[in-house]
Amino acid sequence: MAAAGIKDALETLKKHFGFDGFLDAQEEVVDQILSGQDGLIVMPTGGGKSLCYQLPAMCLDGVTLVVSPLIALMKDQVDALQEKGIPATMINSTLSWDEQRQRIDQMKRGEFKLVYIAPERFRAAAFMDALKEVKISLFAVDEAHCLSQWGHDFRPEYMRLGKALDKIGRPQAIALTATATPVVRKDILEVLALREPFETVSGFSRPNLSLSIVEVDKHKVKHARLREIVSQWKTGIVYCSTRKRVEEVGELLHSWGVKSIAYHGGMTPDERERTQNIFISRKADVAVATNAFGMGIDRSDVRFVLHYEVPGSIEAYYQEAGRAGRDGEAAYCELLFNYADTRTQEFFIEGANPGYKTICDVYQFLQNDSDANFEIQRTIDEIKDGADVKNGMAVGSALGILIRNGYLERFDIPGKRMKGTRLLQPNVLTSKLNIDQYALEEKERRDREKLDSMVHLCYGRQCRQQAILEYFGEEDAQTCGTCDVCINAFGGEAREPASDEELLIVRKALSGVARMSRKVGGKWEGIFGRGRIVQMLMGSKSQEIKRVRLDELSTHGILKPCGTAYLNELFRSLQNAGLVFTQRGEFPLLTLTPQGEKVMLGKSSCRLVWPEKHQVSAVKESDMIIEEFGFDGQLYDRLRDLRQNLAQQERVPPYQIFPNKTLEYFTRLRPKTMDAGMRIKGVGEVKAAKYLQDFIDEIRSFD
């Protein structure tokens, strides 16, 4: 773009949008779009992504089509543009064909500069034919991660957009998203078939966000954290995994007198729009919602985002967290992590990835149930029962796969809210379905891998923002200094082993993991959790250890001199360094990574944050004899979680409650009375009065 073009764009920016200059990366993107290039723009939430196509739309001669996934998102954008005097409209399923035709006629006459379109509109042949008569200057795909099967919010309708571009004459096209890994970015470029595109990845860092992940084991702890965060930060979004949890948390906030709204997919479109507008217009302070809420929400004063349960991927987590602090001011994001919550995400993964057999079962039922016109009027639940499928989500996903492969189509039933199903190739037998089984398996594998990465982030002790930026492919990402890891004393600098002794400790720990894992097809699989592995390395003689004969392993007791607190922190460092990882399942099981195996065998070194060495001397008087129990890593973790919760309530670092070595003494000696507890090193009168009873109660409940 020539200098005069830059000047014209700046004048348009001031005239229509009221800005005197660009934000970071915006000028470069606008420059490349106005030069006529296709492109992919990855820009963090709050970075001014929408302006990157709205401003060029005002500078170009024709109309800019913007593909947007949500009706509410379209409405927000169109309303905001119309308030600025910019001619904009939208076309989606809420409009009749006559209304759509009228707006297309207005587009032909050049009455609109921006038209937001739902992706499913591109399925209609009449709509596509009508678009051929419109002068389209730019085709912008917003929330472009939705078109990648490897993205966190895949929407099948987006897969048609590459062919749609061809049918309307292949105008200049750009794709925009806030979160996309290198794999997803590659997929976007291929599906849209962008021509010699520029790529702008302006960075994912949100320095104004303070990220925190807190391990919790009880709902009452979640309730307490919710109340504290709402009280401190006032305005924000609480994300829940299910409709049931949204309603539960919404009722809880209402009982506390908090002005709040509840939003989920079970509401009608009118209910969702009305509820969303209450939040946007600041008539409510807190929104409790499932993950659909917030995409493109134009409310800049969101001061906190609380994830009540673990999301299914880092992409989803960071996009949702990024809805806080869009005004650039400080905001707080906390995730309440309980490993048991991953079962909900497992259920979602199963629902989103029906196996080939499930797809065949659904298809066979539809064939058997179809009428003379090869049509079926059945609800999803009826199809689920008829096809004997356990997961109702899997039925919807199976229908989507059959639709994309040309075997079915869905149609509206007059006077009913449900949709009907029509067989498009009724003569094709179930045994002859041509569906890529490898692609089905690969998508499920990647979805599970994403959940693994999310769990790894929760357990890890690396700077939260640094870990996320590295996940998105940024090199040399810096620590943020404000997350829970950075402000915790344990989040120190990573380094290589300072001595052969340190390296030997790591190799022994990894050997212990290997002895308590199995290798299948060249990959390590875990059998035990971290707590049990630490027990074995400490030489525990507990019944749990003896029952499964772990006391007979060559690594039994091999690291007893290190102490259990040291080993627990060491394993967190090993996980953060990518030497061990936690598998999903009913329980978190620890095993080796390929890099961990190399370090164990002496074929590679490592860099990690080294825990503080602890002296094992628990009792104040040397002549005092106290029974020592077999160490249990689960108890240590529970005491550590209790300390974390108390520290957050008191607004102090965890070590000021009790240091790690005192927690180890509690774990080994298990005091049941205040007198016994006060005889343990690190417990003074002041701390005993404030905190000791809570720890004694936790030990009693454990035993």
UniProtKB/TrEMBL annotation:
Keywords: ATP-binding, DNA-binding, Helicase, Hydrolase, Isomerase, Metal-binding, Nucleotide-binding. Residues 629-703 form the HRDC domain. It holds the Pfam family DEAD. Gene3D superfamilies: HRDC domain, P-loop containing nucleotide triphosphate hydrolases, Winged helix-like DNA-binding domain superfamily/Winged helix DNA-binding domain. Residues 30-198 form the Helicase ATP-binding domain. GO terms for biological process: DNA recombination; DNA repair; DNA replication. Residues 225-367 form the Helicase C-terminal domain. InterPro entries: DEAD/DEAH_box_helicase_dom (IPR011545), DNA_helicase_ATP-dep_RecQ (IPR004589), Helicase_ATP-bd (IPR014001), Helicase_C-like (IPR001650), HRDC-like_sf (IPR010997), HRDC_dom (IPR002121), HRDC_dom_sf (IPR044876), P-loop_NTPase (IPR027417). It is an enzyme of class 5 (isomerase). It catalyses: Couples ATP hydrolysis with the unwinding of duplex DNA by translocating in the 3'-5' direction. The keyword Translocase does not apply. Its cofactor is Mg(2+); Zn(2+). GO terms for cellular component: bacterial nucleoid; cytoplasm; replisome. Its EC number is 5.6.2.4. GO terms for molecular function: 3'-5' DNA helicase activity; ATP binding; DNA binding; four-way junction helicase activity; hydrolase activity; metal ion binding. Belongs to the helicase family. RecQ subfamily. This is ATP-dependent DNA helicase RecQ. It comes from Oceaniferula spumae.
